[in-house]
Amino acid sequence: VVAAKTWRAQRALMIQMKEHMFSKAYMCLVHGRMQNKIQFVKKKFAELGSSEATQVMLEHDEMHDPFYNQSVQGKWKNRSTRWAETFVKPIAYYRHKKTDEEYTLAYVNILTGITHQIRITMQSLGHPLVSDDRYLPRQQALEDLKWCPRNFLCEVRSDWWDLTGQHKDEKRRRFTRVSLENPLPVLFRGILETKLDLVEKLDQTAEFNV
Predict the structure, then answer these.
(1) How far apart, in whole angstroms, are the C-alpha atoms of residue 170 and residue 55?
(2) Whole-angstrom Cα Rg for the chain
(3) Where is the Pseudouridine synthase RsuA/RluA-like domain (predicted)?
(4) Residue 127: half-sphere exposure toward Cβ, Cα within 13 Å
């Protein structure tokens, strides 16, 4: 949670969020072994469902979206379709102690901000999030929930411009970049340590606890 102490700071943060200048990075645990490379993923997604509890996002193409043709032909004019831009970097491979299934811990940076962006992007790459009860097959989600009781996704870093900082020099106020890092929740750290075996750490500089 980021709280502003003045209305000027609040306004500055709101504008940065709206214009996607407020950067967020996440860690997530996904099914399977991702290729060890940094990927830039740009895909278009469409909403399906009006209720927040049941709404899902689909890849907006003929293969994945059953209403694709209606949308492009203008028969569903009010339907929301948006581009999502995402950087994905695998940082460690894991194996489940009991099932021997493979998993990847990934660092994700989003350049846009659409509903379920990380969840749908990772699913579209063939690596859905662990315990994602909305985008995993039902049986797989139930199996995941036995050892990971919530969606394995956590914001670990936020960056923004400090436009109303305490510096007397206006130039420094305008160009100071603020970064805030968060550790993985105790729950997730415990899962990595007790439920999984670390197979390979791909980024030796990565710190999972900070």
Answers:
(1) 45
(2) 19
(3) 1-124
(4) 24
Enclosing H/E stretch for 9: helix 7-18
Give dist(CA 139, CA 191) in Å, integer.
20
Give the SS3 label for residue 41: strand
CATH architecture of 7-43+84-201: 2-Layer Sandwich (3.30)
Q: Over the chain (210 residues), what is each successive 10-residue block's mean pLDDT?
A: 80 80 89 96 83 66 66 71 91 96 96 88 95 93 96 91 66 72 92 96 72
pLDDT at 68: 62
Q: Give the sign of the dihedral formed by CA 20, CA 181, CA 117, CA 150.
A: negative
In order, the DSSP letters of 80-99 are -EEEEEEEEEEEEEEEETTT
Q: Which residues of 128-158 are buried (b: 16+ CB within 10 A; e: fewer)?
A: bbbbbebbbeeeebebbeebbebbbbbebee
Query: Where do the domains of the chain lie?
Result: 7-43+84-201
Q: Note whether 205 and 107 are within 8 A (CB).
A: no
Nearby residues of 145 by Cβ (< 8 Å), 6 or more positions away: 131, 133
Distant-in-sequence, close-in-space partners of 120: CB < 8 Å, separation ≥ 6: 45, 57, 58, 59, 84, 135
**Are 86 and 118 within 8 A, CB to CB?**
yes
User: What is the structure's pLDDT at 165?
Assistant: 57
Question: Taking the model in full, what pTM does it have?
Answer: 0.82
